[in-house]
Write a structure and sequence with these properties.
Blueprint: H1 17-25, H2 27-31, H3 37-45, H4 49-58, H5 73-86, H6 91-102, H7 112-117, H8 119-126, H9 128-136, H10 145-183, H11 189-334, H12 339-365, H13 372-405, H14 415-418, H15 421-435, E1 437-443, E2 448-452, E3 457-460, H16 462-468, E4 475-480, E5 490-496, E6 505-514, E7 520-524, E8 531-533, H17 536-542, E9 549-555, E10 561-566, E11 603-607, H18 611-621, E12 624-628, H19 637-641, E13 645-648, H20 655-667, E14 672-674, H21 679-688, H22 690-695
Parallel strand pairs: 11-12, 11-13, 13-14
Antiparallel strand pairs: 1-2, 1-4, 2-3, 4-5, 6-7, 6-9, 7-8, 9-10
Helix pairs in contact: 8-9, 9-10, 12-13, 18-21
Protein name: DUF2325 domain-containing protein
Coiled coil: 185-261, 287-349
Keywords: Coiled coil
């Protein structure tokens, strides 16, 4: 760099990079040496304001961060003294100061011997302080310390002599000036005034130039600072631009993926449309075939109806014939012929008639045109005649027994003789109702169990669950029936459907996998990473095949799959699952979860069914439950008028209770809903209409 300080005498030599690197490599040696603080202060006093500012920036003095209208001389020396005290302990700060001084040395310095021989010329050319700092950082100083000290002494002596010469020159100049003053005393006062004015003008110009120069220097410093800030901002903007380029590339990749997915979906949609058109054509053809079949069935039904009318007419004829036969029997009974002979003749006639009926029935069996009703009619007539023959035979046997024992034993009176058919049916229905039990079904991963209202619990199989289509917490009616080999056997009737979405079981559609380790798994159709080992009983009983579609259950927090339904790939079992697509969802897709109450401070009235069917569902919502079985709705009329909603089960409610409940709800502007026979439907109605329920039948505040 160029030296512009007064100490550097304005020389233009530049320190080369190789020498600067050599000085920087040896900087650690100078950091550990004692620093010439007095020499530094003397050197700083010779610097210009610009060089002082560069030193202040190098040392990162705080006042350099703001715009300076005037150089703070006192503040600069104060901060410099503090830094000189710190460099004894702060190695980093000392390095910065040494690097600043290295830049003020001679570029490509000669050896110490050369400097000693040409010291006056070098001092006159570069200046005292340039030679001083060159000697201080000289690379031969450590090896030739004595030579360095001798050169330093000569340099100081040379500096002192030059200062003496400068003083003598100043004195000579002063004497010459005094002589000139004496010679010019005779000049006129007018010329002196002109000179003074010129001097004042020049001094004013010099002061302005100095101020302008300082201002320009400060402006340059601020510009350098602004340039550094702009460079930093440019680097940040470049980094941000690179990030934006990466994001743009990522978005372009996403767009390409989305376009590919869109093309695939369009292709699949086209395939689905073609498949739909094919299925539609097939269904239309099948529908036409079904219409033809229905037309044929209607014709057959009309023919059967005609045959049935013929059978009714024939039945009436047979009834008339039977009445005639009864009259004949009555006539025979009153005749003088012996009773035994009359009975034998009647039995013989019945057997002959049986032969006739049997012959006609065999003739009908040989022809396919004969209807079932006709064949049934002949069999019924034959059965009636056999009963008559059997009754005659029993009567004859009883008479013979009576004659042998000569006892008047009356036969026991049958229940049919004491009661009518309606009375017998009523008694049977009452006995059946007394033995019936209400219960609740609970789902397991395979089958489930029913808990009766008396606390009795019994298990049911998975096949029975599928047959009755039972869901979790369904309400059922259990009627005990006699069954050989079983103590407790019930006929189950579904009363109120439950909700499998709240069961502790996950249901999946999937397929069977037989892996390389000879193990059987059920794999989820929508997520092939979802795989569960199959229970050994299902493997032994159902004997699944590799790749067979299936529906299976997994217990909550469980890991064993239980097969509920198995479909064959090439077999006769083909139902819904093999045709189900991957994006289709089953009815049961949710798991048991805790519902936060959303109908607090509300009252819900339900008419029909039993209270326990709805109690758990309404309790989940936080509402109060008012219930009537549908027989006496007038008992809850006052509570219903204060309710926020009315729910009814039409299948378990009388027409009178239904209309009375609706009238009360309408008069109080209470919303009313119909339950479609399941707990899931009741949950959905409560959730979907919660806003209406919360705001209905409320007192309006004044």
């Amino acid at each position: 760099m160029k030296l512009h300080s007064a100490a550097g005498a304005g020389y233009n030599d530049t320190l080369t990079e190789s020498n600067a690197a050599a000085y920087r490599n040896g900087i650690e040696l100078h950091v550990n040496r004692a620093f010439p603080q007095n020499s530094l202060m003397q050197y700083v006093r010779t610097l210009s304001n610009y060089d002082k500012l560069m030193l202040a920036i190098t040392l990162k003095l705080p006042f350099t961060r703001r715009d300076l209208k005037q150089w703070p001389e006192l503040l600069f020396y104060k901060k410099l003294n503090l830094i000189i005290k710190k460099i004894a302990t702060d190695r980093k700060l000392k390095k910065q100061l040494l690097l600043y001084l290295i830049d003020r040395t001679i570029a490509d310095p000669p050896s110490l011997e050369t400097i000693k021989n040409h010291l006056p010329q070098l001092t006159a050319e570069y200046g005292y302080w340039a030679i001083y700092w060159t000697l201080y950082f000289h690379y031969e100083r450590q090896e030739q310390e004595e030579l360095y000290q001798s050169i330093l002494k000569e340099l100081e002596a040379l500096q002192e002599s030059s200062s003496v010469q400068d003083t003598a020159g100043i004195q000579e100049t002063a004497a010459a000036a005094s002589e000139l003053v004496e010679l010019n005393e005779a000049d006129t006062k007018q010329e002196q005034l002109k000179l003074e004015k010129k001097i004042a003008i020049l001094e004013d110009k010099i002061s302005k130039e100095i101020a302008t120069r300082q201002q320009l220097e400060l402006t340059n410093v601020q510009k350098d600072k602004t340039i550094r800030q702009l460079q930093q901002e440019q680097e940040k903007l470049q980094q941000h631009a690179s990030l934006l380029k990466e994001q743009i590339a990522m978005y372009e990749m996403k767009i390409s993926n989305l376009e590919r997915i869109q093309q695939e979906s369009a292709y699949r949609r086209k395939e689905d449309e073609e498949r739909w058109l094919q299925e539609r054509a097939s269904l239309l053809g099948q529908n036409k075939t079904n219409l033809d079949d229905i037309r044929k069935l209607h014709q057959q039904l009309e023919q059967i109806q005609r045959e049935l009318d013929d059978s009714k007419r024939q039945t009436s004829n047979w009834q008339q014939l039977a009445q005639q036969r009864q009259e004949e029997l009555h006539t025979l009974a009153n005749s003088k012929a012996p009773l035994e002979q009359q009975l034998n003749e009647l039995s013989e006639q019945m057997h002959n008639q049986l032969d006739t009926y049997n012959h006609d029935l065999l003739h009908l069996l040989k022809h396919d045109e004969a209807s079932y009703e006709q064949r049934l009619y002949y069999r019924q007539q034959m059965l009636n005649m056999l009963q008559i023959v059997d009754a005659i035979d029993k009567f004859k046997h009883a008479e013979q027994q009576h004659n042998r024992d000569e006892q008047d034993n009356e036969p026991p009176i049958a229940a049919e003789q004491l009661f009518t058919a309606e009375e017998l049916k009523s008694v049977a229905a009452t006995e059946k109702k007394e033995t019936q039990r209400f219960g609740t079904f609970y789902r397991r991963d395979h089958g489930g169990y029913i808990e009766l209202e008396n606390g009795e619990i019994f298990n049911i199989t998975e096949s029975l669950v599928q047959q009755l289509e039972l869901q979790h917490e369904a309400e059922v009616l259990c009627t005990p029936t006699a069954h050989p080999g079983r103590a407790n056997h019930y006929t189950i009737e579904l009363l109120f459907q439950g909700d499998d979405s709240f069961s502790p079981v996950h249901t999946y559609d999937g397929f069977v996998l037989f892996d390389e380790d000879q193990k059987w798994y059920c794999v989820d159709l929508n997520d092939e990473s979802n795989r569960f080992p199959i229970h050994y009983k299902d493997i032994e009983i159902q004997k699944p095949g590799h790749g067979d579609p299936c529906t299976f259950n997994v217990a909550e927090d469980g890991h064993i799959a239980r097969l509920t339904k198995l479909y064959r790939v090439h077999g006769e079992m083909t139902e819904s699952h093999p045709g189900r697509k991957k994006n289709e969802t089953r009815t049961k897709t949710t798991v048991r979860r805790k519902i936060e109450p959303f109908l607090e401070d509300c009252t819900v009235t339900i008419i029909g069914g039993q209270r326990k069917w709805f109690e758990s569902v309404v309790k989940e919502t936080g509402a109060a439950l008012v219930h009537d079985g549908g027989e006496h709705p007038e008992r809850i009329a006052s509570e219903l008028s204060r309710s926020q909603a009315l729910f009814m089960i039409l299948t378990s409610t009388s027409h009178r209770a239904t209309w009375e409940g609706i009238e009360i709800a309408k008069s109080n502007q209470i919303p009313h809903f119909i339950i479609q026979g399941s707990k899931s439907n009741l949950r959905k109605l409560l959730w979907d209409n919660q806003e209406i329920i919360r705001t209905s039948n409320r007192a309006v505040e004044a």
